[in-house]
Amino acid sequence: MGLLALAMPTWSQMQSQQQQAQEQMRLQMQAQLNAQPQSFEFQTPSGVTDPKLRETMRDLAVRVLPVYQEKSIDRYLSTISMLQLVAANYPAAYESRKALLDRRRKLDAGKPMARSVVLDLYALARAKEVDDRLAFNEAFSKAYREVAAPLGDRDAFVLGNWIAAPLTAPRSDLENAFARTRKEHELDLATAIDLVRLYLAYDSQRSFVTLAPALMAEDDARRYVIEDSVPIRSAAGVTIYARLVRPKTPKRPLPALLEFTLDPGYDDARARAARGYVGVVAYTRGRGGPADAKAMPAEVVPFQHDGADARKVIDWITQQPWSDGRVGLVGSGYSGFAAWSVAKKLPAAVKAIATTDAMAPGIDFPTQGRIAHTDALRWIIEHTQPAAVIAQQPARWDEIELNWYRKGRSYWVFDRLAKLRSDVFRTWITHPSYDGYWQNRLPYARQFAQIGVPVLSSVSERGDGIAALYYFGEHLRYRPDADHSLVIASQSLDQSELRLQWFDHVFKNAGEPSAIRDRVNVQLDGGNANGDWRHAASIEALATSKLSLHLSPGENAERHRLTDAAAPGDGYIEQSVQLADRRDTARPWTTVADGRQLRLRHALAFVGEPLAQAVEINGLPSGTLDFELNKMDVDLNLSLFEQLAGGEYRLLAEPYEFRASYAKDRVHRHMLRAGERQQLAFKSERFVSARLAAGSRLVLVLGVNKRPDREINYGTGRDVKEESIEDARPALRLRWYGGSRIEIPVRR
Fold first, then answer.
1. What's the pLDDT tens digit per position in 45-77?
2. Residue 533 class from Cβ within 10 Å (0-12 exposed, 13-18 middle, 19+ buried)?
3. Nearest-angstrom CA–CA distance, 650 and 147
4. Which in 30, 121, 203, 206 has the greatest CB count within 10 A?
5. Which phi and psi angles does 652 have, rounded to 5°?
6. Residue 501, exposed/middle/buried by CB under 10 A (0-12, 13-18, 19+)?
7. How confident is the model at residue 36 (pLDDT cuts 50, 70, 90)?
8. Could you read off the pLDDT of 210-234 as tens digits, one per residue?
9. Beta strand 732-737 with 622-629: parallel, antiparallel or unpaired?
10. CA distances from 79 to 97, 171, 200, 392, 666 (A)
């Protein structure tokens, strides 16, 4: 901290000015301490594009300034400087920020740089604009260079990212605040200050965000050696391209962090170089070359060659003079898969693997629970075809899916109906089981036992975790002593920072990230970034018991009960789904909660009794289905909701979908017995972590998958991709018996 001290002439001058300013503020605060709460007339602008926006907000800040009071000097200085900036009293705002910085200099020593430095920088730029009579763009550029130059690489990187942050969030925050005050004609003091704060966040960001790229590039050129489209020959003689970013200053070789990706627009190499690594981003065949922006060669084949090609890149890295011989594999999504593909035959140079929301082909894509998702075709086109082909896609992908659904054609012709024929897509759907085709792309069975390096698998707020749980589970299954940490975050944990902190722990002997305190680390849904974590040695150890609930008949045909014991006798609940009926094309395509209603789709709801006490769900729900059906197979989905005491519903996790014939074994299909009562054990692949309040009810929704964005299982027992609406009759009929139960892992 203390960045703005650069603009101070001398220490004695600064000290004198600070003492005078603090005494003046103390007297002002004392005089205002007993003042009554103020209200301010205010005409809310129409939005961020209102031509009178700046004038309106400046007028509000000018009127708030004389009456604002606060006992805490730090909070006073922080708020008064924001009011002064919006009021366009830039010299005063600059002095207020300097005084605040000096007060916090000792307190903030050794701490990570705070985001408030952006406001410090903005105040300095505005002061230069006035004092030096410069245009704002020139003043800001000059201020940025002064502030960034003495910073270390890590802080300079963070500062650059902050000033380059998109306007989306601050614009949305301000628009939402305007919506809340639009019907008001007066604002209380707290609301007025909050509105000024949100406006300043938006107005300052829009003033310099367009300047950020050039300023960051200029600063990067001082700090790093940056090489684009570096050619590397693969073992098959194909050229792989890579981007390298490495610090200029180190005199010794460094470890490299490698990300192997399909996305030519993705680049985190600079972030890794800022932390003292060589950042390497290598691209799958056909990507990343000098001509990549114009066209993509036809040889782009997802999941095909990445492991072998990435291993060649690793060999190349270890031969470079800037390499100390150690490589960490890092990635998310597709690049997360590539890291695990390398691990199938792990090179000795790889010392650590860290992935977030990694894909696992054959496990979570292009199928989940062995049910094919139609958007796999769109994914293929967007990731393998030239831009001209992508541009020809319909504006609404829904229409492709609905056309196929209405026609009732087999899944085998889906790409042809879409007029987007893809050999890759057709290859994928010929492998519905987790067979050798998929097993060859990732470590399989005992190959996991050979992975002896530290591993971090993390799941972001938006990730579903299926692949991460698979990698974690298989690694521990075949190597029980594996050094593998799992982090499941339900809030906005900075995943990139988490991985870098973890690599610092592995490569530089730094402490472990605060989120990692045991092998399994889970943030409760509804918690915050700093707390509400649970840590355990295994997924099973997160729970202290299981809540076993049976499916029992209820008050009507769609709403039934979850009970502690099975209903007596051989009673059952009947469910029927007309697979031939194609009138159900309105979204949503699965069950959703709408306020106090569940909008069921081909599903039954089972509602538990009010909870006597609050409970936490942590783990993978499982259970047994006791049923009879008139088909040889069926695709099912299970969703868990919390019904609050007031009646509102909250979805606890995305639906778990699975093909019944693969519930026992993803490698081999086991047909059901049509017309016979039978039992089917299942275990969800989706992690559930949530706190349920006392008085809430647990709601299970059990449904049949019949939707335009999924392959449809008509239950004949034949290859599902070849079934069509001609196989839909008779209607699917299910009988759910009282032996059906679900087991929820809970912590009381």
1. 999 999 999 999 999 999 999 999 988 999 999
2. buried
3. 47
4. 121
5. -90, -25
6. buried
7. very low
8. 999 999 999 999 999 999 999 999 8
9. antiparallel
10. 10, 20, 11, 52, 59
